[in-house]
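Re: the 117-residue chain
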Amino acid sequence: MPEFLADESLDYRIVRFLRDNKFKIIAVCELYSGITDEEVLKLAGDNNWILLTEDSDFGRWIFSYGLKNAGVIFLRYKKEELKTIKDTLLEIISRYEEHLYGKFVTLSPHKLRIRSL
């Protein structure tokens, strides 16, 4: 089962939701508050954690600057779609599990895009 690192941009309700569903998720805001995006990617990569984020800058860090990591799930949704995105995220994690490693996943309530890193 994959393990996750939640970037500070991620709505904390998603962290709680995943923990309630028995996923191991480390929250940057709890243990590493204030670290840079580069440090977040390094932390995720060093620990083989898949990064969960709502910050589009991570795509630039990875695809433009070549920073490597274990994998990223980038969530795009409107605040009123929070319940839908949580349910969709749970479905995608459950369906793909270990296949999320080495991927950049862009997830919105009704669309999924998976790119290899």
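The chain has a mean pLDDT of 92.
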